[in-house]
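Thread: "does anyone have the structure for this chain?"

Original post by V.I.:
We have the sequence but no experimental structure in hand. Need at least a predicted one for the grant figures.
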Amino acid sequence: MAGSSRSSSASSKRCGCGDEVVIYTAGRRAKNPGKRFRRCPNWKDVNRSCGLFEWVDDDYSITDLSGGGVSSHAAELLVETYKVKISKLQIKLEIERKTSSVMKKLLLMSWVFFSVMCIWCLLKYQYRSQFV
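Reply from O.Q.:
Generated one for you, tokens below.
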């Protein structure tokens, strides 16, 4: 990756080649500047590299350069994570809808009460003015 800097080796983490994994930091011109990632130390040698690449700051190792896609286990974990997030958001949305419905009813009731009070005051004033 152009513009990335090499950091210390990841303690006792080994890639598919059996070599110690190296932690890099993406450079300023990268898509994810400043983000740390692990990579096979043999990444430049296509014949020796196992294709390991994973973001350090993320919980999941998503990208598999040798396969060119997302590892199925990481994808399943991400799907489950997003299902939980979606479920929580749906519950929150339902609560907001109920709260909104209650608030609309309270607003309507307050306007009805205000209107009734105005009419009552007008009628009371009119009734008094007839006898004065």
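V.I.: this helps a lot. The longest strand covers residues 5-14.
O.Q.: and Confidence is low (pLDDT under 50) at residues 59-68.
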